[in-house]
Every structure is written in structure tokens, then in C-alpha cells.
Amino acid sequence: MEPNAPWVVFDLDECLCGLRHHLQTALYDLTGIDLHWSRWDRYDLTGLYGISLEDFTETLLSYRIIERAILEPGAWAALHSARLLGYRTAILTARGWHPEGERVTRDWLETHGLRPDRLHLVPMHQAKGEVLPEYGRVAWFLDDHLGHAAGAEASGVVDRVLLQDRPWNRVAEHPGQRIHSLWEVPALLAASPAVNPEEVLPEPAL
Question: What global pTM score does this model have?
Fold first, then answer.
């Protein structure tokens, strides 16, 4: 892989992995509000459930929500295809709030065979667009958060933004190209590889 190859930057939570199923149960236990995640119409769940940020964070910790994250279908293929096509890969996640966020995340990635070139944690409410310029050129950026997707578009270093479809980002006008499955990612990347695919893809067995 070229040391100056462009990046593909993936969000983790609700993109490569899902927290929503376990989090729905945890928030029901905390509040008694029986609300299926498909009805979460906003990213900020503290307002939706009428709880403080402290209670929300404590729930994430006590229920070990990120430790129990569920690998999303197509996640491995999306990340692996980016590397095969000559891109450098990064996971940029707002898990900086967790006291052991990096260790927990690295353990989870290893368990599921996901090996990005870079793992980058930022605080829960930091704008990802603020840190993207340090990557240089980002060919593709994938996130489920409308604010982060808009920030990526405005960063000046991102070529294309993909918005992972979720109930909380279904608005008429949104940044980036909406995708409904990670299985769409390999074909999108293959249409504009970082290098000639013949140089990086293995020859078929005869």
C-alpha cells in the first residue's frame, strides 16, 4: 500500500457495528419508556428519553453497550475491500467518553477480524470535521450522524461522503449519498480505486 494513499474513514457505532438493540433494552430498564429503536427520530437520545447525559453515559457503561456491539452485515467486506483497492483505512469514532474506550474497541475489532490502519477516538460531542484535515486526502467518509457528515463535506479534504441510513437521519435534505447497507460500499469503492485493481487483487485460481 502506498504510504500517501488516500483514506477511507469509517464511523464505528451504527455503521460498522450496532448498539441500538442492546441500548433500547437498557433505556427501557432505566426509564420505563418502551420505544423501539426504529422510532428514534433524533441522534440525541437524552432528550428523547428525558434523561441527563450523566445517566445516559452511566447506562452505556453499566450495560457494557459498546463491549456487546453487534457486527453489522457487510462490515468486514466494506473495510477489507477498501484495503484491497489500495486505500488506507481508518475508524473515527466518538468513543472518547469511555474510560477504556480504546482498549475495549481494539479488543472488539480483533475479535471480529477488523484491522484498520488507524483507530481514532474523539470525545462524544467533538465535530469529526475538525480532525479530518490531519488525514490529508480522504477519498470516502462514512457516518450515520448528519452533523458529522456535513462537517466532512465542509472540511475541504473529503472527496465523497456516505450517509448510513438510520431512523434518526431520515430528513429530506441531507449531506452525502445515502446507503442502506454496507454491502453497497465495495462496489462504490471499486468504481474509483486508489490504485489499479490488477496491482492489488489476487489472481483467480485456475
Answer: 0.91
